[in-house]
Structure formats: structure tokens, C-alpha cells
Amino acid sequence: MGALLIAAGLFVACSKDPGKTPDKTDPSDEPTPVVTDEPTVSISADATFNADMEAKVTLTLSAAAAGDVKVKLAKATVQEGKSEIAADYLKNVTIKAGETKAEVEVEADAMGLESGEYQAAIKIDSAEGAKVADNAVVYIGYTFIFNPEVDLHADAQFISDKTAKLQVSLAKATTADVKIKLETDAESKASVTYDSEVVIPAGETTKEIVVTVDIPDGLASGVYPVIIKIAEAENAQLGKSTSVTINLVYPFSVPITLDGLFEDWEDPSIATYTCPEGAFYPDIKVMKLAATPTHAFVYLEFADPGFEVGRPFDLFVDPDGDPSTGYTLTSIDNDTAGDIFTSYGGKWYIELALHDGDHYNDFHSWGGIYRYDGADGQGVFSGGLGSIGAFEATMMCAVGAWADGVGRLEIQLNRTDFGMTGDKARFGAKIMDGANNWRALGVIPQDVADGKFKPADMAELYLPAYAQ
Questions:
Q1: Which of 72, 144, 278, 301, by CA, is between 20 and 30 Å from 422?
Q2: What 3-state DSSP class applies to 354?
């Protein structure tokens, strides 16, 4: 009887369900084997880091151990042809008693990498409570394509051949072609053509594009900005300068040679102001304005009976193109009060005689330049107007010619000396009768209404980008 009880007790202890016959094929019925001999610990890992720069390392025991297994991980040497990527992970890992696996999160850092093939190499450095498997090292790969910043740079203005240069540049070369799509912003005030699909080949950092502006017939003088921006970039990220503005400054820069021949003033892009029919002060027939990055030029064509007749002359210069700064003119001549122009802003008052003996004045052999340093909006003679004294021909000079009662004069002004460093300047001119109380004979620009003098605004000259 006792033997039977012992047998029954043994049967109950070995069976999870006293009413069930053990199924030798059901793994759930098999207890986790625990060995007294040391198991072997091996290592495996994801082949590559994911998009979040994360991967898993798995430590596996050949069999569960009776006690905790403590594994120490360390950095290994990456394989040939690969570069090491910085990786962070738990160095001391415990596989708990009775368990066979432990997972370790690995995070990599791609900051500052060049394009290339990278690895994090991790090995089992030692184990307590288990033997270390042969070749206990894993390699987690990462292919990195450096996406440099892409920026735009461009000329400030279109030049006289209607073109400007645009440069697409990368902060650093990369191993893949960088493809950029450009587009013209809707706020642009001029029409342009250019290659909008730009490819910077792998290993290169810049690509230059020519932008051509359309000049419609009858385009008024002015500044017409064109805005070009990066719409898309492949294998690159947007930098700090993704939009550029190129100004169409019309008329274009035109170099003038002071030789008294005047052919270069026939350029159709030059700003031209003419005296209207029926003008009350008609002696100045034409004023033309041109500029280069270093100089401004004024052309005048006027009635002139000859060198024996005095010809006092005023040239009014607003160097910053801003009518709110500088002097005003409170009379047309000594006998006529009122505005000679609709707005002013003059800084320079040039007063001299056109004739110098039997030829036209060279505009530098004797004085005649006055600078206004008085309060803005006050009359030119209210105070603050002073002569600069003697000056060189490099500051201002002129050449003229006379034929058949018509004088022609071209004047050169140094933009640095006159402070014309912005994108616009304004001019006005007057010829007087010195023998008749300095009566005005010619004014330009001017308008006429009902046979009477009507003030016009000063003549505007849009300047190309300044160069000292």
C-alpha cells in the first residue's frame, strides 16, 4: 500500500494536469532545461541602423543558466573598407537566471559624417557565468550620404547684354548628384529665362547659370526686381540663402567717353528727357543721363547764339535720389518765385558759365561746385551751402562742341566724390541770361500746360551697382 502511495505521489508531481496524460510532443509540457555546466553566450545584431539611427543587439545563451549571466560588451574593430560610426549602448548586460536572451538598444550618431560606408563593431569582451562563443562580434552597418546645404547667390543687377549670373553652391561636396529645381517668384517685376533644372555632379560644389531678362518695348525707367528661389532640392538641404533678387536697372549702364563726338549717347537704353513743344523756358532741348559703376554722365543739347554771349548755367544734383533729403529751390529765377521742379532733395549746386572764352568750360579749371549741408527741405540759400573750393578733373569735367547755334555738352561726375553710391540719382539744369537779371532761358525737365510753364519732377538716373 505504501508503495502505491509513493507512486501516485510521483505521478502527480510530474504531471501539470492530474487528469491529463503528458504529451511528449507539446513544448509547453517541457520544462526549460537548466544545466549545471556553463552555457555559451553568443551575439547577433540587426544588419543596419534604421532611419532613427537605432539597432538591436541580442545576446543568446545556448541554455538557461541556474544563475545570472553577466556579459560585458566593448567596441571592436570595424571591417576593412568601413569607417567607424559613434554608437552608444549598455556595456554591462545581465541575462537573468532561467532566461536565454537579453536585448540591447544601440543608438548611432551621424553628426559631422562625410558620405561613406560606416559600421558600429561590438564584441563580447567577457562573460561571468557563461563561456563566450567563438567570433563573438557583430557589425551594424550604415550607409551615409551627406546632404550639404545648398544656397543661391547672384549678381545684383543685369548688365547691358540683358544677362546676370546666378550661382547654386553647396557647403560641401557629396557623393551623390544634387538636383535643384529653381523657380521665379510671382512677386518678380520682369520676365526672365534660365535653366530651372540644375544638377551639381557628385564631388562638385557649384553650378553657374545665366539668367536673361526680357526688355519689352517702351519700358519706363526704373528698377524691376526679379526674385529666383529654390523650389526643391534632392540630396541636399536648404541653406540660409535660398532666394536671390536680381534687379533690372533700366536704362542699363553705358560707358561714355568725353571726346566731344557724342556718338555713344545714341544708345537707346539711355534715359532721355526732351523739352516739350511750347515750353516757356525752351533753350535746353535735350538732357540725357547715363552711368557706370564709377561715374555718372549728363548730356545737354541747348540753343546757343555763340561764345560772345554769356551763358550762366546751374546743374542741380540729388545724389541719393531721395527728394525728402537736401535743399529745395524757392524760385525759377530772380524775377519769378515758385517751384522750378515738383520735388527736390538736392545736395549739390553747380553754378558756372558754360563759355570759357572761345570754347566751352571744362567744368574743373575754376570753382563752381557747392555742397549743401543745411536742414532738409529748406531753400538752397537758407544756409548750409558752401563752396568746396578747388577740385580735380577726376571729380567733375566736361567737353562741349558748338555748331549752327546749337551747343552740345557732356559732363562726367565721379560717383564717389558726389556720394552717388545707391541705385538712383536725380538731376535738373537751368540756363540763364546773365545780362538780364539772371532770367531763366532754359529749364529741364519741364512741362507745359495752356502755354504756361508747369514744373516737372527732376530727371531720374537709375545707377548700376556702385564700385569705388
A1: 301
A2: coil
CB-based contacts of 401, cutoff 8 Å, min separation 6:
260, 262, 360, 407, 408
CA distance 288 to 157: 21
For residue 319, what are the CA distances in angstroms to 249, 286, 287, 372, 455? 16, 21, 17, 12, 20
pLDDT (0 to 100) of residue 18? 43
pLDDT per residue over 409-464, tens digit each?
A: 999 999 999 999 998 999 999 999 999 999 999 999 999 998 899 999 999 998 88
Q: What torsion, rounded to 10 degrees, do the Cα atoms 188, 240, 210, 246 define? A: 40
Whole-number average pLDDT of the chain = 91
Burial class (CB in 10 A: 0-12, 13-18, 19+), 1: exposed
Q: DSSP of 100-134, one letter per residue? A: -EEEEEEEEE-TTPPSEEEEEEEEEEEEESSEEPT
Q: How far apart are the first and last CA of the chain?
A: 122
The pLDDT value given to residue 26: 54
* Cα 124 from Cα 70, distance rounded (Å): 11
Grid cell locating 109: 550618431
Residue 33, pLDDT score: 56
The amino acid present at 161, given as its one-letter code, is D
CA neighbor of 135 nearest in space, from 44, 241, 52, 225 = 44
Residue 50: in which H helix or E strand, if any? none
Contact by Cβ (8 Å): 335, 312: no
Q: Where are the extended beta strands (E) located within 196-330?
A: 197-200, 206-213, 222-234, 237-238, 243-250, 271-274, 284-291, 295-303, 312-318
pLDDT at position 329: 96
pLDDT at 221: 73
Residue of 212, 290, 284 whose CA lies nearest to 251 = 290
* pLDDT tens, position by position, 33-62: 555 589 999 999 999 999 999 999 999 999
